[in-house]
């Protein structure tokens, strides 16, 4: 739903805003952009329709914050970071736009399967195990049924407190 | 159409019984194409708009009383086995506006509500508190609302609790976050409430907010909806109501349009969806405290108290960061709450929040953000909920959709600071090494000795981060038109055949999670409406 120019601005915003360092340095910007684009379809019409306009304001807005007559997409990381902070502190509509883009980037980044795995969060793996466990409890024989389902007790932890059920972090192929 | 299972979902050796529930008499609105010269027409004794905590029990109750009931829902029928832990997918499927709604004001308040069969009961935390006695006393004595005193309401709360299957959390489902939450309260000498929750053998997945794939949560999706459908009620999904049809001062039905899974009347692949009209003797609005007044306003039911008196029950998050690993995603969702400060209008709880959602509440971006989020498994997300005294409004926006505005009163601002201080104190008492706060100008404190900074913070509103899932009172009960939109039995003043059964009729902020109040009021009102309908038939 976004045009080529808007997508380019969004990609640059992702590159600047996404978490980085340590196991967050995964090459997933393209995936994050695709997740954001799918999300945009579900936003209320006023937000959806004004979003590309907001991105253009970000692109052509550096002069408003005395960053010179350049475009956002041509800024290096350091300058772009400083520029985005201007939007954060501006209050009103600019701050709301900043919050909206930031939220989309962060939600899609941290829920990426690679990041979840790096963070050692396997919520879906635990869900699969809990579904089987509850069914077994209600059927009156949890141990046997758990074995049959290939599930394990997710609450067992290692010496460092890490849960002992870790799958590939996928969502089972459903929903997307 | 009868829906029973979803293809493509892996089967386990044992399946939860909720996976085998049947949903007969369901029609999918996306199957109704656009006709340039007309609308798809339906008829029923009763049309119920919305299938959440108010609409579903009202529909079931009226069907049991022998009426032909048609239930309309703007969202889709998503079965228990389709629920996932991925918020991207779940927000799109189960939430209105993919969970991005907000209440305009200073500060803006993030707001989320369900848009699916079962409504917000599918995505709530499953807390089932009765309306506090002091609130019921206020309704019956000061607002003089008939039969709303504690004794009269007891029968309806009993019935609501039976439907919701309210029980306490099993010990084997509690996570480390719960243990620390309780430990902090115990150290401070606070009384800890064992949370009554609507569930049948919860196993502590902590995914309540994205739909419970284990089937344990007794949402309307697995209780009143299948019961109503099994008894012969009909359900039309993806059907969004625009307005109530009136003739000679009485409601005679509703009209609206079909939408796709995005809420749009234009299909993604091209083409438009159809419009519809439902003729009925009784119109029950149960679209929630935002959209019910919106439908009234679009139907030109204006003036009086419509859209006024909105309460938001805002909450502010307080994140404790611990040296030890907490694994906040393991354990039950809010098995305990602190009610010690309810007289001050403050309730304290906690929740398991997916990393992506929690991340939006942590300030900054880039490397600094990553450094904080790297501690995710060491975090407990607590929150204080405030019984607000300010009042907001629901108004029609330029897009003819209901927009909400709300301004915190000075008392509410003080209560937010007091609640945040208490929750932070509890986290430090539990052993947190630092606490993240919901203030733009005071994002983190590093010890109990810094709690005073919360007291000293200038009472600026604009950079307090708040959210809510508990809006109410936007078409409230009142003895007459000058005091409320509906009478004590949910009947709209001055319009025959139009009634309301959702959080919008709650006459004042109740200070606790409102689900059980909504169910109880809907059951109580539905019995009266069945009597009214029978009388009218006889006459």
Q: How many domains, in number, for the residues of chain A?
A: 2
How many strand elements of chain A? 0
Instruction: Report the structural category of chain A.
Output: mainly alpha
Radius of gyration of chain B: 23 Å
**Could you give the distance between the termini of chain B?**
37 Å
How much of the sequence of chain B is in beta strands? Answer: 15-25%
Unreliable stretches covering 5 or more consecutive residues of chain A: 148-154, 165-176
**Percent of sequence in beta strands of chain A:** under 5%
Tally of DSSP β-strands of chain B: 23
Short description:
Chain A is mainly alpha-helical.
Offer a few descriptive terms.
heterodimer, A: 176 residues, mainly alpha, 2 domains, 8 helices, 60% helix, elongated, B: 539 residues, alpha/beta, FAD/NAD(P)-binding domain, Cholesterol Oxidase, domain 2, eight-stranded mixed β-sheet, six-stranded mixed β-sheet, 12 helices, disordered N terminus
Describe this structure in words.
The complex is a heterodimer of chains A (176) and B (539). Chain A is mainly alpha-helical and 176 residues long. Chain A has two domains: 4-118, no CATH class; 121-176, no CATH class. Helix content of chain A is 60%, strand content 0%. With 539 residues, chain B is an alpha/beta fold. Chain B folds into two domains: 21-34 and 41-165 and 209-310 and 470-538, FAD/NAD(P)-binding domain (3-Layer(bba) Sandwich); 167-196 and 315-387 and 409-460, Cholesterol Oxidase, domain 2, CATH 3.30.410. Helices cover 25% and strands 22% of the residues of chain B. Chain B is built from twelve helices and 23 strands. Chain B has helices spanning 55-64, 87-94, 133-142, 150-164, 176-188, 224-230, 288-298, 355-360, 366-373, 410-429, 452-456, 515-538, and strands at 26-28, 40-49, 69-72, 101-105, 109-111, 166-167, 192-194, 197-198, 234-237, 239-247, 250-258, 275-285, 308-310, 315-321, 336-338, 346-351, 379-386, 392-396, 402-406, 434-439, 442-445, 466-468, 498-500. In chain B, the strands form five sheets. In chain B, strands 1, 2, 3, 9, 10, 11, 12 and 23 form an eight-stranded mixed beta sheet that branches. A six-stranded mixed beta sheet of chain B has the order 13-18-19-4-5-22. A five-stranded antiparallel beta sheet of chain B has the order 16-17-14-20-21. In chain B, α1 packs parallel to α12 (515-538) and α4 (150-164) crosses α12 (515-538). The longest helix of chain B is centred in the C-terminal third of the chain and has 24 residues, at 515-538. The two termini of chain B are 37 Å apart. The model of chain B is unreliable at 1-12 (pLDDT under 50). Classes of the chains: A mainly alpha (176), B alpha/beta (539).
